[in-house]
Amino acid sequence: MNGYVRLHRKFTKWGWYDEPNTKAVFLHLLLTANWQESEWHGETIMPGQVVTGRKKLASELGISERSVRTALSRLQETGEISVKTTNKWSVITVENWSKYQMSDGESDQQTTSKRPTNDQQTTTNEEYKNIRNKDNTHVELLPYDEIVDAWNRICISLPRVKRLTDARRRKIKARLEQNDLGDILNAMKAVEASDFLSGRGGGWRASFDWLMNSDSNIVKVLEGNYENRQKVSKTQNEFEAARRRIMEQYERAVSAGA
């Protein structure tokens, strides 16, 4: 892997910018795509292409395969990528890859090629640090902040999250391995709507840590285990009143016969 990519500020206006998993997958493909032509298992891999698969992407990004599949589908639908699939791997092409390599009117490759070799190496290493941490492992592109912000915005009846601790990061990462971001957001909405979980019914109430503590809590919320009970209808009330009258009449009749 060599060099860097140019990312314009207008990327923040990109259609999938507010969808964390799709954004993470696209940026990862952009950063890992070939920068020069190469051969792999008899296949010519062109600049802007990357050989990968859903399982590999899920492992590298720390998200579920389902989330990767959804993200790739979205990126294909909007023309950001194209995918050539074999029975063993996929070759993903980042469409318009060259525009992420060009500065305003000139190629960064051309500019860099005019510098001394040592200067090129220094520049590459400094830029590479932006996407790698000190342990030389991939920087996680998980939506930690977005999930916390969503909780504070949706669950207004419950305590706000004020600190994104390491323990909370671990819980969020674990939940995203088995649940789509959309499922987690829907669970938050259901928590706020529940009188029991929100504490409106009195007594115990849920918290961010409770929801993020296990997949089973998210599943129970999504399956409606904590939904508010339906109010008894007028017909049911009338039925209960009639039943009580009949029972009272029966008991009086039994007493009179005795």
Q: What's the total count of β strands?
A: 5
The CATH class of the largest domain, by name, is Mainly Alpha
Number of alpha- plus pi-helical segments: 12
Question: What name does CATH use for the topology of the largest domain?
Answer: Arc Repressor Mutant, subunit A
- First-residue to last-residue Cα separation: 98 Å
SSE string, helices as H and strands as E: HEEEHHEEHHHHHHHHH
CATH homologous superfamily of the largest domain? Winged helix-like DNA-binding domain superfamily/Winged helix DNA-binding domain
Main-sheet strand order equals 3-5-4
In total, the number of domains comes to 2
* Mean residue pLDDT: 79
Helix percentage range: 40-55%
General description of the model:
With 258 residues, the chain is mainly alpha-helical. The chain has two domains: 9-128, Winged helix-like DNA-binding domain superfamily/Winged helix DNA-binding domain (Arc Repressor Mutant, subunit A), CATH 1.10.10; 142-258, no CATH class. It has twelve helices and five strands. The protein has helices at 20-32, 54-61, 65-77, 108-113, 117-128, 144-154, 166-178, 181-193, 195-198, 208-212, 215-222, 234-257; strands spanning 38-40, 43-45, 49-52, 81-85, 90-94. The strands form two sheets. It has a three-stranded antiparallel β-sheet. It has a two-stranded antiparallel sheet with strand order 1-2. Helix 1 packs across helix 3 (65-77), helix 2 crosses helix 3 and helix 6 runs parallel beside helix 8 (181-193). It starts with 19 loop residues before the first helix and ends with a helix.
